[in-house]
Design goal:
The complex is a heterodimer of chains A (109) and B (623). With 109 residues, chain A is mainly α. Chain A has one domain. Chain A is built from four helices and no strands. In chain A, helix 2 crosses helix 4. Chain B has 623 residues and is of the alpha+beta class. Chain B has two domains: 232 residues, Alpha-Beta Plaits; 294 residues, Formate dehydrogenase/DMSO reductase fold (Up-down Bundle). Helices cover 42% and strands 9% of the residues of chain B. A five-stranded antiparallel sheet of chain B has the order 3-2-10-11-12. A three-stranded mixed sheet of chain B has the order 8-1-9. A two-stranded antiparallel ribbon of chain B has the order 4-5. Chain B starts with 60 loop residues before the first strand and ends in a 15-residue tail after the last helix. The chains are: A mainly alpha (109), B alpha+beta (623). At the A-B interface, helix 3 and helix 4 of A face helix 7 and helix 8 of B.
Chain lengths: 109, 623
Amino acid sequence: MKKRLDAIDDDLERAVFLAHYNSSRQRLLRFAGVLLIVAKHGLRGLLYVWPLALLLFVELPGAWDGLRLLLLGLAVAAWFHFIRGSVRDDYRRFLSGALLEPAALKRVL
Amino acid sequence: MFKVRENEPEYAFIPRVEAPENNCYGKPIQLVDESDPLAGQSLNINGDSSVGDNPDRYKQHGFYFNADNCIACHACEAACAEKNDTPAHLAFRSVGYLEGGSYPAVARLNISMACNHCDNPVCLKGCPTRAYTKFAEYGAVLQDPDICFGCGYCTWVCPYNAPQLDPEAGHVSKCNMCVDRLEVGLKPACASACLGGALDFGVIETTPENRQQLETAIPGFPDTSITNPNIRFQQTRSLPREMHRTDSTPLRYVRDDQNVKPEPGVKGGQGGYRSTPLKNRNQPRQWSLDKLRSREDPLVIFTLITQAVVGAFAVLFMGPLLGLESLSAGAHPIAYPVTLFCLIALQTFALVISTLHLGRPHRFYRAFNNLRYSPVSREVAAVAVFYNLLGVYAVLTGVPQLFAWLPDGLVNSVREASGWLAVIAGPVSLYFMQRIYRIPARPFWNHWQVLTSFFGSMLTLGPLLAALVFLPVLAYQGVDYASLMQWLVVPMLAGLLLEGFGLWRHARYLQTGAGEGDAAWQEQCTRFGKTWITRNASMAVSAVLLALVAVSALSGGTGLVLWGLLALLVTITALVGRALFYVLVIPTTMPGAFFWKNPAFQEHAREAGLAGMPQVGVQASTH
C-alpha cells in the first residue's frame, strides 16, 4: 500500500506527492471513487426509503397530493441522512490523501 | 515488536509457571494446539507482521488482584492511560471503592478493574458490528474501534463496565490486555506499574508469588456465571458485614454466608457478599420529570413507533378480513393506501431516529454483521424485513399502475403474500426487539415484562394509530364510526391489561431478585415515585375510559374530541412508561470512586459547569 499524505514528514517527498495528487488523472480517479461511494451508500439508504420514493411516480387527487409530496420530501431527507456521513467517512478513508490506481477503486465498494 | 527496555525490572515480566489443564469453569487453558491453523499467526500490531516468542502465547491469561495490598494510588490507571493514550474522560482501568464499618473500625476495599477477557464474552456476542474478537493469543478479547458504530450495546451487556463508550469519538474502546507487551513476555502496563503488589498478571489459575487465594469474586463483583471472567482475587482482611459504594449508586453489599456458597472446585470460594439496595424506604416520592431524558431517548421513540406501526398494519390488514369493511381499501380507495404510506413514513422516521442513538449514525448498515449471535442485529434485520414487506404491500396496493405490465393475478398474489408475511414479521421483529433487553447484567430489564410491555404497546398504540387516520375520514364522510371504535377498543384494552399484568409481575420479581433490580424498584418508588404512580393510574384510567366511551357509542364531533383526548392520554402514558423503562435500570457495574464514574458527581459537574473542563474527566452527556 502506498504512503498517504499524512504519513509523509519530508518536505520534498510531500511536494512530489502533492504534484501527483493534484494531477488531472488523480482528480478523475477521486471523482470516480466519489461516484462509486455515493452509489454504494445511496443503495444502502434506499433500503429504508424505497416505498416512499416510489410515490414520485403517482399522483393523488386534491389535498392528498400535498401529503404525497410531504412523504416524498421525508424520503429524500431520510435518504440524505443515511448517505451524508457515510460518503464523507469513506472519502476520508479511501480517497483523501492517497494516490489512487484504477484497480484500487474497487476497494471502496 | 514492542521494545523491551534494557533495565526492565524482573517483576515486569510474566513468570513461567506450570498451569493446570482446565480453569475453574472447566474450560481448557491451552486455547489452541501448536498444530492448529490459528497458531503461529501474527497479531499484526500496528502493521508489524512478526510473531511474538512468548512460550505461553496460546494460554488463557488473566489478571490477579490482591485487595489486601491495593492502596488506591491509581498508578495502574495512570499507566493504562499513558500506554493507550486515552482522553481524560475515558479509562480502560478504574479503581473503585467500597466502604463500611463505623469509626474507628472503618474499612475500605479498593478494587482495580479493567476488562476480564472472559471465557464467555457477552460483549462479543452482543456486538452487532462484530467489532470484537476473542483471540487464541493469550485469550484476549479485543475490540476494533474502527468497526464499532457506537451503539453501546456492549456497555449494556458487560457486567464489569469494561467497554468504554466515548461520546466524543462516537465509538467504544476497551482494554486490549497490552498484547504488544505480552508478545515480548512483559506484563500489561497496569500490572507492571502497580506499587503495592496488588495487581498481577499471568496464565490463569497459576497462583502468583506471595498469594494464597484464587477467588473468582470479591464484594462488589457481579455474578461470575454471566461471563466466566478471567480475573482472580485475594481478599483475606476481614471486612464489615455491610459495605457501601461511594459512587452514589443506591447499592450496598451485605455478607451472606448462608446463601452464597463457594463454587465447587474454586480455590478460596466466593466472596460471600450479595448486593442489596440502600435502605431508603423513608425517602419522599418525587416527580423527577427532568430526569426522564436520557441518551436512550431515540430508542424510546423508535420502540414505540415500531410497535405502533406493527399494530396499526395488523389492524388495517386483518380488520377487513374480520368483517370491518370501514377499514378496507375498497371503502377508502385513497385513504387506505395513503395510510399505509404514512405508516412507512413513520417507520422511516423511527429508523432515522434510532440511528441518532449511534455514535456513528452513518455506519448504521453494520448492524446486520452479527446475525448469528447479536440480538441487536436480529432486531434490525427483522424490522428491515417487516419494513420491506410493508413497503411491497403498500406499493402494490397504492400504486398498482406501476405494475400494470405484470399479470393481475401475480400482482394480487404477491400483494396478499406480502401482507400476510408482514403481519407475521411485525410481531417477530418485536420479539427480537425485547430480546435485546434480556440482559443478566441489567436485572431491571431481565424479565418477561419487556415482552408484555412491547406487545401491549403494539396492541394499544396500533389501533390508536389506525383510528387517528380513519376516524376523521369517516367523520368527514358523515359515516358513523362508533361500531369501528367499539371493535378497535378490544385490542387496545387487551394491550393495556397485558402491560399492566406484566408490570405487576415485574414489581414482584424486582423485590425478590438481584440487588440491582431491587435498587431500581426503590428508585421507581421514590425518585420517580409520583411519575410512576401517575403512569400506572393513567393506564387504569385509560382502560376504564376506553371501555366507557366504547359502550356509550359516542359519535360525531363530541365523540371525536373525546377519542382525541383519550388518544393523547394513552400516548403520553406510553411515552412516560417507556422513558421510565430506560432511566430506571441499574446495571451490575463495578463500584466507582468518589468522583470518577460517580453519576451524582457527573450530574453536579454538569450543573456547576465543571464538566466543560476536559481535565475533570466528565463525559459529554450526548455525542
